[in-house]
Amino acid sequence: MESDDALYLARVKEKLKPAVIRSTMTYAGLFQLTHQLIELAVVGKVKSHYGFVDFTGPHFWMDDFGGERDYKEEVLKLSPKNKFLASVQWLLQQGGLTRQQADQLREIYDHRNDLAHELTKYIIDVDHEPNYSLLGDALIILRDLDRFWMSKEAGAVSFDVTEESDLDDVQSGTSVVLSLCLQACIDSST
Questions:
Q1: pTM to 2 decimals?
Q2: What pLDDT is attached to residue 85?
Q3: Which candidate, 175, 166, 169, 165, places its Cα nearest to that of 145?
Q4: Angle, CA of 71, 41 and 152, to the nearest 5°
Q5: CB under 8 Å to 131, separation ≥6 — which residues?
Q6: Environment class of residue 19 by beta-carbon count within 10 Å: exposed (0-12), middle (13-18) or buried (19+)?
Q7: What is the pLDDT of residues 56-107, one digit of tens each?
Q8: Which of 186, 26, 40 is nearest to 119 (CA)?
């Protein structure tokens, strides 16, 4: 029977294999990207819904419609010190997120921060592994947010959904980019 030291050394050697390190780094990058896209779907899209224009140039409110005032009164009041949490609360009220998804967003945020600031421990410490199932949860939340926003836009003038099509058949630019990145990671691992 191997000693505890020998087992631990074997685990360290496995953890430090280039393929394992590459897998951890790939996961960390995908998780960061997914988190960023969720943040845009939560904070950015809610502000946009109220008339905030955020192109590559100047950012501004289309104040002719009272959007900035309404945004402050209807969204920011829900959590005055945190735009993200206020937007999550608004999305809960609107049916864009479930309570479980809203709670998972805290775990996703914490894991994202840990990956960003403590990546080395995931690479070398045998007792720290990325939370792969949390990436799956984040992808589902992002998909559901995309569907929510597309259903909002389908009722507006931004695009038409014909009788032959279904919102589930429509892919947002966000989901297309993320799908390309996921496929690239899968292809590079084989």
A1: 0.83
A2: 95
A3: 175
A4: 70
A5: 111
A6: exposed
A7: 667 777 766 788 899 999 999 999 999 999 999 999 999 999 999 999 999 9
A8: 26
